Amino acid sequence: MFTAGMALRTALKSSSAVFGESRVLMSSLMGTCSAPSCTSALMSRHDRTACGSFAIQPVRHYARPARKKKQVAESQLSDLPPTMLKKEYAAVPLAQTTDDIVQRLLNLELASHSEKLKLKRDQLIAKVQMDESDCSSPQVKVAILTTRIRNYQEHLQKHNKDMANKRRMLMAIDRRTKLLKNLRLVNYNAFENVCQQLGITYTFPPEYYRRITRHWLAKKALCVKVFQEVQKLKAEKKLKMKQSVASTHREASEKTQQNSL
Hints:
Shape: flat
Structural class: mainly alpha
Number of helices: 8
Helix content: 55-70%
CATH architecture of the domain at 117-224: Orthogonal Bundle
Largest sheet: none
Number of strands: 0
């Protein structure tokens, strides 16, 4: 303890001596500035910067770029009014004549997300179904998948690292694309109606592309050669069949002529 206290005293004396010499040097250099306020300001600044590890360095605050707010897309459930009754209470006549507290329980004001989603799915199905009993046509399946895909998109805007739901969304998009492709080939008017009513933009798949290599060229040339040989054999076989049929007809005609004679 005694040795540590002696070392601390000697360090303080040496630092005070250094500070005194620095004050004298500054006063000699700044002889023109005789005002006490000027010298005190310079000395205080010099003391702050010359104290070694005990000094408090000034902090620089750099300007940060302004963060752009993310534009959140409008939800597909935003057009559902809160005063709208739930699906199971829509056909009940007494649901609209009850008091306010009961109506809040029966309408969409306190409904869950799944209940609103079911109601939105029924609205989209009603736009494209052929009749009231239609529940399994390609148009209805496309409407159900569209509701599910838009729900996944809204979820991924808030939770962009949810890879499980992203995978489910891509699988639903592929399934809807196949249904729309088949519907376009079978019934083009129904395909246009579905795209218009549901707000779907159908994009054609990209053209087939393969990187040309020497191995691929040689394989293609061999396939073309084999195809040509097979076509020649088929042509020869057809010619033989025609000749045999013609000979049988000729023989039959000769026999009928002989019998007639």
